[in-house]
Write a structure and sequence with these properties.
Elements (H helix, E strand, L loop, with lengths): L2 H7 L15 H4 L2 H10 L11 H16 L4 H8 L3 H13 L1
Helix pairs in contact: 1-4, 4-6, 5-6
Length: 96
């Protein structure tokens, strides 16, 4: 997929995240929803998968940065992901 095709597929910015600073449930979810979750899950970490559209935008951004010559570690730091994830995306996108 070319950079132009990736840009066309995009619908918005990719929000970087910081894995070292997890977001609290009450910061992003309505209180009623948090209470409902607490009724079924008694503390701990719940993994919420990323929407496929958001993941596609992230992958497009990764490929644009790779095309621009940005190092994998820098891409990972900028997007709040691991360099292994960057490598995996590049490998999958270049195989298509």
């Amino acid at each position: 997929m070319t950079a132009a095709e990736r840009k066309k597929r995009r619908e918005g910015p990719v929000k970087p995240r910081d894995r070292r600073n997890p977001t609290g449930a009450f910061e992003v979810l309505p209180e009623g929803l948090v209470r409902s979750i607490q009724a079924h899950f008694h503390g701990g970490t719940i993994y919420v998968p990323v929407d496929d559209r958001i993941k596609a935008m992230r992958d497009d951004r990764i490929m644009d940065m790779v095309d621009a010559g940005v190092h994998f570690e820098t891409i990972a730091d900028n997007l709040g992901i691991t360099s292994t994830t960057v490598y995996t995306v590049v490998k999958r996108e270049t195989a298509e």
